[in-house]
Amino acid sequence: MTDSKQNQNGNMFLYGQPELLTLEEHGALGLTPSDTPYAMASGVRAVPVTVAEFASAQRHYPIVFTNIEAPYPVAVVGLLEDDNLFMENGAWDPACYVPAYLRCHPFAFAAEQEGRIAVVVDRAAPTVTTNAKYPFFVDGKLAPETESMMHFCAKYEAERQRTVDFCRALKDMGVLAAQRAAHTPEGGGEEQVLANYVSVDAKKLAELEAGSVVELHKTGRLAAAYLQLYSMENWQPLMMRRDQRLKSAA
User: Fold this and answer.
1) DSSP 10-67
2) Rounded to an integer, what distance in angstroms lies between the CA atom of residue 225 and that of residue 208?
C-alpha cells in the first residue's frame, strides 16, 4: 500500500514533477480544469486518507494502514491488478467520495513561515498550462483561486499531521495487527488472497485498559478506530467491482 506522501523512491506520490510554486518559474502558468482531474490515480490500488475523512471514506472503501512500524491510513481502491476500480475512462465514480489528497493535486503543502504558506505544484500535470483559465499569478500576486488552493492544502497538511499522531497512538497501544483479505470463488475452489494489510484488531481494542479507552474517546480517536473497522465491510463490494470490471473487459 502507498505511503502517505511519498513513494518508495522518495518522490511525492502521484506528482510527476513537483516544484516549489514561484512567480519567477510559474508566472506564465495556471490551472485549466479537466473533465478527468484524477486520471493520474487510475493505476493505483490505494490513496492516502486522513482521520477527518474516515466517516466519508468508510462508506465506500476498505481503510487500511500501510504497515505496523510507521502506519498511515489509505483507502483501498484496487485489488490484485494495478487498476483503480472507482475510475472509468479517467473519471471517478460520482457516487463515491474522492480523497482530499487527490483534490489537492496539482498542489501540495510545502511549508509555512512567518504566516506565509508555500506550496508545491506538479509541473507535469496536464491541468497546468499556459494561457490558463485560472492563472497562478495576476499582476505579480497570487490569484484568488491559487490562494484558495494554498489554504486547502494547508488545512490538509494539518489533518495529515493529526492523522500521524492518531496512528502513533494506535501503534503505541498495540492495537494494530497484520491481516489479510481473501476470497473463495463461487462453487468452491482455492482461496484467493486479495490483499495483505494492517488494521485495528477488534479484540485488542476491546481488551484495552479503561484509562486507555477514555484517552482514545476524549481525543476522538476511538470513533476513528471503529470507523476503520467498519470499513472492512467494503472488501466484498470491492471484489464485486473487480469481477464486473473483468467481465466487461472480457
Assistant:
1) SSBTT-SSEEE--HHHHTTEEE---S-TTGGGTT-SEEE--GGGHHHHTTTS-EEES-
2) 13
Quote the DSSP letter at residue 79: -
Residues in CB range of 73: below 8 A, 6 or more apart: 48, 49, 50, 51, 54, 63, 64, 65, 66, 163, 167, 228
Higher pLDDT, 49 or 193: 49
Q: Is the pLDDT of residue 8 over 70?
A: no
Its sign, for the CA torsion 226, 227, 229, 230, is positive
164, 72 in Cβ contact below 8 A? yes
Q: pTM above the 0.85 mark? A: yes
**Interatomic CA distance for residues 179 and 1, integer angstroms:** 13
In this prediction, residue 111 carries a pLDDT of: 82
Instruction: Give the confidence band of 188 by pLDDT, cuts at 50, 70, 90.
Output: low
